Amino acid sequence: MALSSIFGGAAPSQQQTAPASTAKAVNVKEQLKTQIAQELAVANASELVNKVTENCFEKCLTSPYSSGEEGCVDQCLAKYMRSWNVVSKAYVARIQQASTSGEI
Amino acid sequence: MSSITQNDLASLDDGSKKEIMNFLESENSKQKVQMSIHQFTNVCFKQCATNVNNGNLSSQEEGCLKNCVNRFLDTNIRIVKGLQSIQ
């Protein structure tokens, strides 16, 4: 799972529409899915912003605010996003390993 | 994009309702994974990011993050087992 997916990169892609559905039902259904996916993307983005702010505030703002800390915050953000990707890969690998060995 | 009305929802056929249910279920489980990743990153970044002078991860930091995730999960499994055994 890549970081891009939390910003809504993973659009709903199931196209198996039941033959009985009317065009209107299909429309409502797709709209509902898009709305849900968007809300989740927003929730994920705001969670990320909160966590990065918390962590980078801790790491960078040790004394009253000075412009030198802006660079630190930028580096910290980049590092946090890279960490997110590493953690995501490690976790997904672990889930896959557990599911193939029948642990879960 | 116009918003969905109560009527629109009520007029959905059973097949569509079922599809929406499945969609919600899969999004729900994806979201649980995402929230766990947020939590692990939060915990492990605190442990592993020794400095923020550089936006790139060093190989030690990367190894530390991977270990952190796996040890967190090991601990979690151990605790669940421990709780089960005292029941």
TrEMBL record, chain A:
<protein>
    <recommendedName>
        <fullName>Mitochondrial import inner membrane translocase subunit</fullName>
    </recommendedName>
</protein>
<keyword id="KW-0862">Zinc</keyword>
<feature type="domain" description="Tim10-like">
    <location>
        <begin position="35"/>
        <end position="92"/>
    </location>
</feature>
<dbReference type="GO" id="GO:0042719">
    <property type="term" value="C:mitochondrial intermembrane space chaperone complex"/>
</dbReference>
<dbReference type="GO" id="GO:0140318">
    <property type="term" value="F:protein transporter activity"/>
</dbReference>
<comment type="subunit">
    <text>Heterohexamer.</text>
</comment>
<keyword id="KW-0811">Translocation</keyword>
<keyword id="KW-1015">Disulfide bond</keyword>
<dbReference type="InterPro" id="IPR004217">
    <property type="entry name" value="Tim10-like"/>
</dbReference>
<keyword id="KW-0472">Membrane</keyword>
<dbReference type="GO" id="GO:0046872">
    <property type="term" value="F:metal ion binding"/>
</dbReference>
<dbReference type="Pfam" id="PF02953">
    <property type="entry name" value="zf-Tim10_DDP"/>
</dbReference>
<dbReference type="GO" id="GO:0005743">
    <property type="term" value="C:mitochondrial inner membrane"/>
</dbReference>
<keyword id="KW-0653">Protein transport</keyword>
<feature type="compositionally biased region" description="Low complexity">
    <location>
        <begin position="10"/>
        <end position="23"/>
    </location>
</feature>
<feature type="region of interest" description="Disordered">
    <location>
        <begin position="1"/>
        <end position="24"/>
    </location>
</feature>
<keyword id="KW-0813">Transport</keyword>
<keyword id="KW-0143">Chaperone</keyword>
<comment type="function">
    <text>Mitochondrial intermembrane chaperone that participates in the import and insertion of some multi-pass transmembrane proteins into the mitochondrial inner membrane. Also required for the transfer of beta-barrel precursors from the TOM complex to the sorting and assembly machinery (SAM complex) of the outer membrane. Acts as a chaperone-like protein that protects the hydrophobic precursors from aggregation and guide them through the mitochondrial intermembrane space.</text>
</comment>
<dbReference type="InterPro" id="IPR035427">
    <property type="entry name" value="Tim10-like_dom_sf"/>
</dbReference>
<dbReference type="GO" id="GO:0015031">
    <property type="term" value="P:protein transport"/>
</dbReference>
<keyword id="KW-0999">Mitochondrion inner membrane</keyword>
Automatic annotation (TrEMBL), chain B:
<dbReference type="GO" id="GO:0042719">
    <property type="term" value="C:mitochondrial intermembrane space chaperone complex"/>
</dbReference>
<keyword id="KW-0496">Mitochondrion</keyword>
<comment type="subunit">
    <text>Heterohexamer.</text>
</comment>
<comment type="function">
    <text>Mitochondrial intermembrane chaperone that participates in the import and insertion of some multi-pass transmembrane proteins into the mitochondrial inner membrane. Also required for the transfer of beta-barrel precursors from the TOM complex to the sorting and assembly machinery (SAM complex) of the outer membrane. Acts as a chaperone-like protein that protects the hydrophobic precursors from aggregation and guide them through the mitochondrial intermembrane space.</text>
</comment>
<keyword id="KW-0472">Membrane</keyword>
<dbReference type="GO" id="GO:0140318">
    <property type="term" value="F:protein transporter activity"/>
</dbReference>
<keyword id="KW-0813">Transport</keyword>
<dbReference type="GO" id="GO:0015031">
    <property type="term" value="P:protein transport"/>
</dbReference>
<keyword id="KW-0999">Mitochondrion inner membrane</keyword>
<dbReference type="GO" id="GO:0005743">
    <property type="term" value="C:mitochondrial inner membrane"/>
</dbReference>
<dbReference type="GO" id="GO:0045039">
    <property type="term" value="P:protein insertion into mitochondrial inner membrane"/>
</dbReference>
<protein>
    <recommendedName>
        <fullName>Mitochondrial import inner membrane translocase subunit</fullName>
    </recommendedName>
</protein>
<dbReference type="InterPro" id="IPR004217">
    <property type="entry name" value="Tim10-like"/>
</dbReference>
<keyword id="KW-1015">Disulfide bond</keyword>
<dbReference type="Pfam" id="PF02953">
    <property type="entry name" value="zf-Tim10_DDP"/>
</dbReference>
<feature type="domain" description="Tim10-like">
    <location>
        <begin position="22"/>
        <end position="85"/>
    </location>
</feature>
<dbReference type="InterPro" id="IPR035427">
    <property type="entry name" value="Tim10-like_dom_sf"/>
</dbReference>
<comment type="similarity">
    <text>Belongs to the small Tim family.</text>
</comment>
<keyword id="KW-0653">Protein transport</keyword>
<keyword id="KW-0143">Chaperone</keyword>
<keyword id="KW-0811">Translocation</keyword>
